[in-house]
Design a protein that fits this description.
Elements lengths: L1 H24 L3 E8 L11 E9 L2 E7 L7 E5 L4 E7 L2 E14 L3 E5 L3 E7 L5 E7 L3 E5 L12 E2 L1 E8 L12 E10 L17 E5 L3 E7 L2 E14 L5 E3 L2 E7 L4 E7 L2 E3 L16 H21 L6 H11 L3 H12 L2 H14 L4 H4 L1 H8 L9 H13 L13 H4 L6
InterPro entries: BatD
Keywords: Signal
Protein name: BatD family protein
């Protein structure tokens, strides 16, 4: 009888020891979700950092996060998961950290999570078991985006701009083409969130924009988006002009203030034009030689007309018809040299003088000069022949005055 009692007692002790040993061997697995924002109540479109951190007192052979669903948010993962080893309460732990950048798409109060991490654990004796660790849920309140000038909304931690010109546009060589490169970088936003390029339009300017370049760099602190714009610009007229400044507003999520970056204003002028904007160009030799020649011809005109002197306006008109235009001579010289740029500059001046639109009649040359088409594709001889025919016809209605004839200026005398 005593032997049976002792056997039962030792069996109970062994069972209790095995149970306690099994409980002590159970791994401690925790997964925590936290959010970081620059404000307790961020705005729509503002970046929020979501961190999932797991601490596991176990030997993990396989793992995967189950599908992350974030309705009302767009998101991207900030690099790969980071695994590390550490100690906690004297025990060795395996830790994993995953970071996401999430962007609320509408205002309201939302619950983020819980998230699930599926693990395959080895108990140390070769036996494996699968378990799912569930995180906590986080509640977040999102405010609607505030009203802004122009309606553009760009929340970011920092926005920088680089505005580079490859030459001094205030002193351009004749026919020169300037290249402008603008690079905008936004910390805390992707490249897709950056604005489209502004329209560069002016009546005195020819501008072509190259295809834009957008890139996004991923860091543990969030994405950094970059957009690059490039224009090629040149004057379409000899007169100077000024390209207006362009402002890009953005919201500083750290100071909680609206700011802006500026594409600065820029003056365009040929180096040969030194007069300030709004004033006429300096008097050139041709401008005073012509009146001098007219003054010398006046007596001859009076003698040839017979009984009374011809009006100075009629003599000037006839004198101009006799002499070739300066721009016509420049066009001929450039055509003979095969100089497309010089030909385009002289032709644009002559077209504008006769009341025609240079951009309309010189489109083929502009495409070759500004769109990097082969210049040899431009047939200057054919272009010159077409323009000579255009100059023989009257200018487009309403664009220039018709030349005066003797009947317009000299009243007919009765006989």
């Amino acid at each position: 009888m005593v032997g049976r009692l002792l056997a039962a007692f030792f069996g109970l002790v062994l069972a209790l020891g095995a149970t306690m040993s099994a409980r002590a061997a159970e791994p401690q697995l925790t997964l925590e979700a936290t959010v970081e924002a620059d404000s307790p109540e961020p705005y729509v479109g503002e970046m929020i950092l979501l961190t999932l951190r797991g601490d596991y007192d176990a030997f993990i052979t396989l793992e995967r996060f189950e599908g992350i669903e974030l309705p009302n948010f767009t998101w991207l993962q900030l690099g790969r998961d980071v695994w590390s080893k550490g100690r906690k309460n004297g025990r060795e732990y395996t830790s994993v950290e995953r970071r996401l950048a999430i962007y609320p798409q509408k205002p309201g109060t939302f619950t983020i999570g819980p998230f699930r991490h599926r693990l395959t654990v080895d108990d140390g004796s070769g036996r494996r078991s699968e378990t799912i660790v569930v995180s906590n849920a986080v509640t977040l309140t999102v405010r609607p985006k505030p009203a802004t000038n122009g309606g553009w909304w760009l929340p970011a931690r920092n926005v920088a701009i680089e505005d580079h010109w490859d030459m001094d546009t205030a002193r351009l060589a004749d026919g020169a083409t300037a290249t402008r490169t603008v690079t905008i970088t936004a910390e805390g936003q992707t490249a897709a969130a950056l604005p489209p390029p502004p329209k560069v339009v002016a009546p005195w300017l020819i501008a072509f924009i190259a295809p834009e370049t957008r890139t996004t760099e991923i860091t543990r602190d969030g994405p950094t988006g970059t957009v690059r714009w490039q224009w090629r610009m040149r004057l379409s007229k000899a007169e100077p002009g000024r390209l207006q400044a362009f402002h890009i507003p953005w919201f500083d999520t750290q100071s909680r203030q609206m700011r802006d970056v500026v594409m600065k204003s820029r003056r365009f002028a040929y180096a040969t034009v030194t007069a300030p904007e709004g004033s006429s160009a300096p008097i050139r030799a041709w401008n005073w030689l012509l009146p001098l020649a007219v003054g010398l011809v006046l007596p001859i005109g009076a003698a040839l007309n017979g009984r009374r002197p011809m009006p100075a306006r009629e003599i000037l008109a006839r004198f101009r018809r006799w002499l070739p235009e300066r721009d016509a001579l420049a066009m001929r010289s450039a055509r003979m040299r095969g100089d497309v740029k010089a030909y385009r500059l002289a032709a644009a001046r002559r077209l504008a003088h006769h009341g025609h639109a240079p951009e309309r009649h010189l489109a083929e040359i502009d495409a070759a000069l500004f769109r990097r088409a082969p210049i040899r594709a431009v047939d200057l001889r054919e272009t010159d022949r077409r323009l000579r025919g255009l100059f023989r016809r009257p200018a487009e209605a309403g664009t220039c005055e018709r030349q005066l004839s003797p009947r317009d200026t000299v009243p007919q005398r009765g006989r």
